[in-house]
Each structure stands twice: as C-alpha cells, then as structure tokens.
Amino acid sequence: MDKLLITGNGPLKGDIRVSGAKNAALPILAATILTHGEVRLSNLPQVRDINTMCSLLTELGLDVSRDGETAVINGKGLSSHIAPYNLVKTMRASILALGPLVGRFGEAEVSMPGGCAIGERPVDLHLKALEQMGAEIILEHGYIKARAAKLKGADIHFGAVTVTGTENIMMAASLAEGTTILRNAAMEPEIVDLAELLNKMGAKIQGHGTKTITIEGVPRLHGAEHVIVPDRIETGTFVCAAAITRGHVNITHTRPEFLTAFLASLREAKLPFNVGNDFIEVLPHEGLVACDIETQPHPGFPTDMQAQFMALMTQANGCSLITESIFENRFMHAAELNRMGAHIKVQEHTAVTTGPTPLSGAQVMATDLRASASLVIAGLIADGETLIDRIYHLDRGYSRLEEKLMGIGALVKRIK
C-alpha cells in the first residue's frame, strides 16, 4: 500500500495546471450507457475512480478506448445490466449506472455502493424517483434491482438536495416517455456539465444549474464530443496549499466562478489573490485571519473543501468555527491534524479551530479523499517529515498530485 512522504520546506512558487473534474467525468461516463453511438471525451482526469468507471463500462459491454486525458466510448455493444460488487465496492459513483441502464436497457442490477467513510449517503432518493417513473425496485442480496419496460415522465420533488440523485434521474429521464420535472434539484457545475453533454447527444433538458430541471424524453440519443470542465475541488486544494505556505502560485486552466463562496471566505481571511477568466493567482501574505464557514449545497461553501480549509485555518490568527451540514461523519481528519500540533476541538457538527499553531511532521492516516488532501496541505509547512498512510483515497480523486506539487517546489515522495 503506497504512502506519501512530505517534508515541509517553505513557500510554493510557480504555475500549476488543474485537471478535469472527477465529479463531472463520472456521471458523464455513465451517460455513455444511454447511446448506441460514440462519445469522445477530453480533459478526463487520470485518477483511480475514472479507471474504475471505465472498467464498469467495459464490464457492461461498452467499448472504451483511452489515451491519456482522452477517451472514446462506444455504446453499441451494451450487453449486460449488472454492475458487480467487485467494482462498485470501491466507488460510490457506480450508482450512476442505475438510471442509464434502466433508461436504455429496461433493467439494472447495481451492487449497493461503497466509497469514502464520511457518513451515510442513502440512495433512497434515487429509488423513490425511479419508482415515480414506473420502475419496480427490489433490494436483495446486496443489490439494487430495478426494472421498467419503459420509464414514464414524472413530477419529482427531492426531499433533500442530492447531486448523484439529480444526475441519475436526469439521465434516466432523457429516454423516458413524456416530460420529467426535477424540483429541489442540485445546482452543482458538474450537473450543468452533464446536462450540456446530454443535450449534445440529443436530449432536451432545460433549467440545469437551477433548482428546477425539465427533461423532455426522446426516443434515442446519439454520439457527441465533450470537454470535461476543470475540477473546482482540485483548484481549491491548490489554493489552500499555496496559502498555507505563504507562496506565490498561479493556478491555471480552471473556472473561478465555480468557487464563489470559497473565494469569498478567503477574502474574509485576508488572503491576497487575483482572479481571471481561467486562473487564480495566490499571492504571498504576512498572516491570515480566522473566519467561520458552514458547508452548503452549491453555490454555498463546498463540503469537499471543508477539510482543506480546516488545515489552512490552523495557521490563521484567531478561532474559526467550521460547521459541516452535509455529512455527519466528516471530521475524522481533525484528530490527525491534532496529532501534527493543531488545536481543533470537535463539538457535534462544528470544529473549533484555534491558530496559528506550529505543526510538526508525524505519521498520519488518511480516512477519506478530502481528508487526505488536508494532511498533504498540513505536511507542506510541518517541521520535519509527514508520512501519510492509505493514500489510495488520494489517488481516487487527484490526478498526479505529487508530480504537480513538486513542480511548484514541494518536497513530496511516493513510497511504494
């Protein structure tokens, strides 16, 4: 099992390029199930979750050809409706195959998904929506089994905002009979990116990026070409890495408008930075001011940036209250940061972080994808060496992270 060895060594400097968004690419790959045609994707991040999703598509009978950040997927050979446990257990996003399979194949068997241990993320919202569209749902032997001769359009109100639920049902509804309306839909940029691809494939979707999405079902979808949007969470992670080291880093090939709430919090923390159409330039500073954040669905502060922001706040002057309102078990990184010298006290859904505190290198354990990133960020300024165990979490969501960080001066080494 690989580990990451980081030696704290001062300010980061230089340019760093953002990869395509994992959380956009996964549903987009699932959407290729919907067509007999060929879908060409570029700016595809080279991370483990993408490898897993491509393996799942191959298991289902699709032809997948990859060359670096480009992939060509042909759906004419779809021959199976079963997403097996051996693939799904490692990646929660495998549930995204459910809607497209029922939409095109008429039935699906998807193993109950796995992924990061950050709390309960029930799929009942997906299943209730599919039932409203006429699907029969059975849960047995660890599998979700769904069947419908033909899905019917429905007026669906999600009881809670669900990103994967919105994506799953939006895909299923693209081939349903009639019109589907999704109310209280998620508004993340990754959902907009998925809708734009589906529309290129011949779907009729309106309202994506708002709380109400309307999908008029069509009989058939065709092939298309699409460029995956930049990863806003990778962008934010690099911003925190530059800021904690008091570095001067230009983060390129990104979309700053995806991170409005995050950047607003950084302004409140007195971090100097410049923003352009496709870059964020983090400037050196003489110290940050603690500020409070609460995670919210988009366009609020992203839950996937909470851990990285907490690492940054260990070096800010004062006391910051970091409230997690999305997942109930997403503060496991706090204990590991405390082992490095941080002063973080978790009180139910809020982590009280007091700084600045000197950090020292230690052997720490990654508990989930974004927790891994927070430990990397802390290690960049810790005295001595930080050894991060279980970095397979990190490999699920960050493309060539150590290589990119070394390119701007970090001392990072992967240990096999």
Q: If you had to describe this structure to a student in words, what would you say it looks like?
A:
With 416 residues, the chain is of the alpha/beta class. The chain has two domains: 3-19 and 230-415, Enolpyruvate transferase domain (UDP-n-acetylglucosamine1-carboxyvinyl-transferase, Chain, Alpha-beta prism); 22-227, Enolpyruvate transferase domain (UDP-n-acetylglucosamine1-carboxyvinyl-transferase, Chain, Alpha-beta prism), CATH 3.65.10. Helix content is 31%, strand content 26%. It has helices at 22-31, 48-59, 85-88, 98-105, 124-132, 163-174, 189-200, 232-244, 260-268, 306-313, 332-339, 369-379, 392-397, 401-406, and strands spanning 3-7, 13-17, 38-42, 63-67, 70-74, 82-83, 107-111, 136-140, 143-147, 155-157, 179-183, 204-206, 212-216, 224-227, 248-252, 273-275, 279-282, 288-289, 293-294, 316-323, 343-347, 350-355, 363-365, 385-389, 411-415. Strand 23 (363-365), helix 12 and strand 24 (385-389) form a beta-alpha-beta unit. The N and C termini lie close together (7 Å). The model is unreliable at 115-121 (pLDDT under 50).
Give the tally of β-strands.
25
What fraction of residues sit in β-strands? 25-35%
What percentage of residues falls in helices of 4 or more residues? 25-40%
Low-confidence residue ranges = 115-121
**Number of domain modules:** 2
Name the CATH class of the largest domain.
Alpha Beta
Return Rg in Å: 21 Å
Question: Could you list some keywords that capture this structure?
Answer:
25 strands, UDP-n-acetylglucosamine1-carboxyvinyl-transferase, Chain, 2 domains, five-stranded mixed β-sheet, 416 residues, 31% helix
